[in-house]
Each structure stands twice: as structure tokens, then as C-alpha cells.
Design a protein that fits this description.
Largest sheet: 5 strands, antiparallel
Strand order of the largest sheet: 5-4-3-7-6
Structural class: alpha+beta
Number of strands: 10
Radius of gyration: 19 Å
Oligomer: single chain
């Protein structure tokens, strides 16, 4: 992909032109990123405190007992968004859904263990372990390029 930037003092609003031979998933993703104006901030409750979370500090996000929690290096936070809403807000290059109830940060993965029949064991850098459900194994293999 080539990127060209022109500085024009007469330009009042930025303009993006995409030149391509065909519309691909990569082009659609690029367009969506450029035009997406949804806030990328995440906030979580820890007791009575509400904190802004840096999504790159998040190890995993999971749903249990009707609640959605984010695990970070600073502790566990209760989130008020549903997993599908979080999937839209999180960086798709870093976060991937591994089951109906869990999203992990690929940048925080220490190792994938493929020796389990029908599933994948995921070891995170905080020494926690989780599993990819059978339904998501093919998706994870595609993300990993295997």
C-alpha cells in the first residue's frame, strides 16, 4: 500500500482519495477506520471508582454471571458494555473473540497450545490461561495464519 500526503495551505478540510483496482476487504476496513467516529475510550468500574481504561493494558474481557469484566495489569474492572459492543470499539488488529463469552488481546498472548483436541489453550503474559471454544478455532487459526 502506498501512502501519499500533500500539505496545502488552501485546504480547509482534510480530503482522502483511495485509488484502487477493486474494492477488497482491506479497502473496506481502511474506509471504515477513516470514517469511524465512535469513541474508542473504555471505562470500567473498580468498586465505586470509574476509570478510563487503555485498551492496550487489557489482557482479556469476559462475560460471566450477566456481567462483563476486563482484566488489566491494574486489576479487574466491571464494564457496562456488551461483548459485541466492545468488539466494535476495540482495535481489530489486537483483539479477537475466542468464545461467546471472551475476547483476548493478541499482544498479551504468551503462547498458543494446539495440542488439545478440538480446542486451543491460550497462555497470557499475566500467567492466566483460557481456551478457544471449538466454534472459534478456525477463526483463530486464520488470524494466526496457520
Amino acid at each position: 500500500m502506498q501512502i501519499e500526503i500533500k500539505i496545502d495551505s488552501n485546504c480547509s478540510e482534510p480530503k482522502v482519495i483511495v485509488v484502487t483496482d477493486k474494492i477488497t476487504d482491506r479497502i473496506n476496513t481502511l474506509i471504515k477506520k477513516i470514517t469511524d467516529e465512535t469513541p474508542q475510550l473504555l471505562s470500567g468500574f473498580q468498586g465505586e471508582k470509574l476509570e478510563i481504561l487503555d485498551q492496550y493494558d487489557i489482557f482479556r474481557i469476559y462475560a460471566a454471571n450477566g456481567k462483563v469484566c476486563a482484566v488489566t495489569g491494574h486489576g479487574e474492572y466491571l464494564l457496562r458494555l456488551r461483548l459485541y459492543e466492545l468488539e466494535e470499539r476495540l482495535d481489530k488488529a489486537s483483539f479477537v473473540r475466542i468464545s461467546n463469552s471472551e475476547i483476548i488481546n493478541l499482544k498479551k498472548v504468551k503462547m498458543f497450545d494446539l495440542s488439545y483436541a478440538g480446542t486451543i489453550c491460550v497462555s497470557l503474559t499475566d500467567d492466566s490461561v483460557t481456551y478457544v471454544s471449538r466454534r472459534y478455532v478456525a477463526k483463530i487459526k486464520q488470524v494466526l495464519g496457520i
